[in-house]
């Protein structure tokens, strides 16, 4: 993390720039004009240690009452800017600038369960389709055999009976099939579960691996932890 801290030209609020993200702190006109627009730079070494550095040597920066050009500091140090010693709200700034991260690993399981269940429903539908075609096939085959051979004619009744049985089984399966309800429930459940753990936004019917490639939540912009 590297922050550029200074006075916002338009509002005279404290302005903190993190990469391209600009955050303003405090009331309008709360920052005196002896704080430059780009006054100092704050670089994180770790969670609690930072280096504060004047951007121009003409700027004045104080650490615990001592004027510095560049100094290693912690959260607890008192930082002031400019000759009029504007108190820098360091803790507030660090709190605001905390990286916005969200762990979406639990969604991997949600996605896998959803796609498995969806495939199972589709396979069942495929099986139903197949079952409805077998009797037609048997009937046609029976007709063909009868036409071809005298001797098979007495057995044609067997084909018809088998075809009817399969047909009846197919009707039973379709009549008892709750695939549509199941699919509807599954979809609702998925829309409840496949959401950003931070802001709760539904992340869409997108494969988990593709989701990770998106890098951040389209709602709260939290970055996904890889
Ligand atoms: Zn979010």
If you average the pLDDT, what whole number results?
A: 91
Runs in which pLDDT lies below 50 for 5 or more consecutive residues are: none
Structural class: alpha+beta
Strand content: 15-25%
CA-CA gap between termini: 18 Å
Radius of gyration: 35 Å
The total count of strands amounts to 12
The 3D shape can be described as rod-shaped
Q: What string, H for helix and E for strand, traces the elements in order?
A: EEEEEEEEEEHEHHHHE
The helicity comes to 40-55%
Distinct ligand kinds:
zinc ion
Q: How many distinct helices?
A: 5
Instruction: Trace the largest sheet across and list its strands.
Output: 3-2-1-4-5-8
In total, the number of domains comes to: 2
Largest sheet: number of strands, sense, barrel closure: 6 strands, antiparallel
Assembly status: single chain
Give structural notes:
This protein has 226 residues and is of the alpha+beta class. The protein folds into two domains: 2-98, Tumour Suppressor Smad4, CATH 2.60.200; 106-224. It contains five helices and twelve strands. The chain has helices at residues 90-97, 106-148, 156-176, 179-193, 208-213; strands spanning 2-7, 14-18, 21-25, 40-44, 49-54, 61-63, 66-68, 70-74, 79-81, 86-87, 101-102, 223-224. The strands form three sheets. Strands 3-2-1-4-5-8 form a six-stranded antiparallel β-sheet, covered by helices on one side. The protein has a four-stranded antiparallel β-sheet with strand order 7-6-9-10, with no helix packed on it. It is rod-shaped, with a radius of gyration of 35 Å. The mean pLDDT is 91. Zinc ion binds at residues 196, 198-199, 201, 217, 219-220, 222.
